[in-house]
């Protein structure tokens, strides 16, 4: 297996997801190419002020360089100083309607090289859902697709990657989950290259199956100022996670990636309040009591 086959899959995946989202939204994504000083570049596809998506991006990147950044070696310090090659597709979608959840998906491949030594390679990625107003049927659907996606890799694969997702997308300084999770994995290189590549292909190819029906079901739900206000407040948690804890954001910035493409994950309208909590018994409070609890949905 060569990295060219991975790259071809990722580029085709970006194109297919963008085409499907343009069908749902009715507005085209803006596309541009960028080059990274030091090696590589990428292709960004971004939508702003769409009919359905207030902001969203589906980005491809392929970068390489002489030394891995701290974010990539934090868990594997023995790789410090190696040259690297990394490629992936990363997307974040922020619908305008507060009843339609934000979603994130990412799949990536890393290779670290050193003279007179075998390359060290691994895959990473996953997808996760961040609702503002929770629907149990949406959560069940999203997690069922995640479970079905991973079933070919063993009965223990989904529970393991679901738990990994719950633990990773957690705001430690708030002591709360970012959303209702999904699946997540990193430093994945077992049992062999072909199986790992098959796994990321399954995740990428099933993203639309997991998310598109939810988006289409919720995008026209009536809402008012109250719902938009709560959505903006909860989006603040998304910003906090991405800027404080997310390894992907740090990797992109530390390797000199294109800042505009890296930070396309941030929502356009956000609010913070001092020491605010939703009223007990309110529909907003239900998000905390019934959904942000690390629940086993399937």
TrEMBL record:
Subcellular location: Cytoplasm
Residues that, per the record, bind a divalent metal cation: 94, 104, 143, 173
Cofactors required: a divalent metal cation
Positions marked as site (Important for dimerization): 173
This protein's name: Oxygen-dependent coproporphyrinogen-III oxidase
Region (Important for dimerization): 238-273
Record keyword Oxidoreductase present: yes
One of the record's GO cellular component terms: cytoplasm
Organism encoding this protein: Nitrosomonas aestuarii
Uppermost EC category: oxidoreductase
UniProt similarity note: Belongs to the aerobic coproporphyrinogen-III oxidase family.
Pfam families xrefs: Coprogen_oxidas (PF01218)
Catalytic center residues: 104
Gene: hemF
């Amino acid at each position: 297996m060569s990295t060219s086959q991975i790259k071809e899959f990722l580029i085709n995946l970006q194109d297919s997801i963008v085409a499907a989202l343009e069908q749902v939204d009715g507005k085209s994504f803006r596309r541009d190419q960028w080059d990274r000083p030091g090696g590589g570049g990428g292709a960004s596809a971004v939508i702003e002020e769409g009919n359905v998506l207030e902001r969203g991006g589906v980005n491809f990147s392929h970068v390489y360089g002489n030394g891995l950044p701290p974010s990539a070696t934090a868990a594997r310090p023995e790789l410090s100083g190696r040259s690297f090659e990394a490629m992936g597709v990363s997307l974040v979608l922020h619908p305008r309607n507060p009843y339609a959840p934000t979603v994130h998906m990412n799949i990536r491949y890393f290779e670290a090289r050193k003279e007179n030594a075998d390359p060290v390679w691994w895959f990473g990625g996953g997808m996760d859902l961040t609702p503002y107003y929770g629907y149990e049927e949406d959560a069940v659907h999203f997690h069922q697709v995640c479970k079905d996606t991973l079933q070919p890799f063993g009965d223990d694969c989904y529970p393991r990657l679901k738990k990994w997702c719950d633990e990773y997308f957690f705001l430690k300084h708030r002591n709360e989950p970012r959303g209702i999770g999904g699946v997540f994995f990193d430093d994945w290189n077992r049992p062999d290259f072909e199986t790992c590549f098959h796994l990321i292909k399954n995740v990428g190819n099933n993203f639309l199956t997991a998310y598109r029906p939810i988006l289409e079901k919720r995008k026209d739900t009536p809402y008012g100022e109250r719902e938009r206000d709560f959505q903006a407040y909860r989006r603040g948690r998304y910003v906090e996670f991405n800027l404080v804890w997310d390894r992907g954001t740090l990797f992109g910035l530390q390797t000199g990636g294109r800042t505009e493409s890296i930070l396309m994950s941030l929502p356009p309208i956000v609010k913070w309040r001092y020491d605010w909590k939703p009223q007990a018994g309110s529909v907003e409070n239900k998000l905390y009591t019934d959904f942000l609890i690390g629940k086993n949905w399937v």
